[in-house]
Design brief:
TIM Barrel; alpha/beta; single chain; about 350 residues
Length: about 350
Amino acid sequence: MSQPNKDANIGEKYPKLIDSFGRKITYLRLSVTDRCNLRCFYCMPQADFNWMPYENILRFEEIIQLVRVLACQGVRKIRLTGGEPLVRKDVVRLMGDISNLEGVEELCLTTNGVALAELAEGLFAIGLRHINISLDTLRRERFQEITGRDLFDRVWSGIQRCIELGFSPIKINFVMIKGKNDDEIADFALLAARYPIEVRFIEFMPIGRGSNWGRDYFFSSDQAIELIEKRAGKLVVEQRRPFSGPAELYSLKGGKGTVGFISPLSHRFCSECNRLRITADGRLRLCLFSDREILLRQMLRDGIGQKDLAQFLAKAVMKKPARYLAKDYDVPHCDRTMSSIGG
């Protein structure tokens, strides 16, 4: 995906991103907007919130400067998130520009799928292959209840279009919420038997001040595995792929796809964390569950050079915590909402 350029040897002069615990940072989750065309109850405040002011959102040239430097420092995987990234004007062009930066080996997108049917062909044309689509139910009425919008048919059409075009991997992100959609877990696992996709079961996390998270809503990965094996048969452990992230992967006998389980609460994976997050308003976030952030936007607008930016980022990474901290019976929490952090 990446193309050679005249700065190809610049990375040799830049410090690699290794934190104080020896973890190499190779993965960036980059939010390009906090805006979204859905209102999922577990992600976005349902009232009393405002979008970030437009002038606070990172400009495309600032994003490119950041990614270029980070790629020279060893970041190989870039994931664009939101809000909903596809609502930002000209985001397909931005993704094409990122894909051509030296050092970027894998470009990914996380989307709610609402705009995919119209934009999938353009995304495929710029070289995007790895796409994650959020979908928490296969029932139209329940989709409207969870997301606040009656758009299930558009999302499903977008998924089908991605399969037709040959995106790979296609991952379906399913947030498990007890009493809301846990009765569909086996149905989603069977999707991975029918289609060449990876269905990823994600534990519901307590993120955001006033979060709707509660212990009564929590459904663990272990419970999901037990439920799937009762309904669909034995799960077979799959070997983890490069850049596969924290998901533990399995396949169903004779199935076309795989299932994965992301278990931040029941099975911590902090010791393997290799990621950074940059919010849409240009704040570096070293841990999802920590509200400690480092403001990058102003230094970019003040004209910081690439070498100085690289030195700053290398020092900042040294502040990455060993693990998330939790106060309430080992359950972590942060004040900023997921839509504001970047999914």
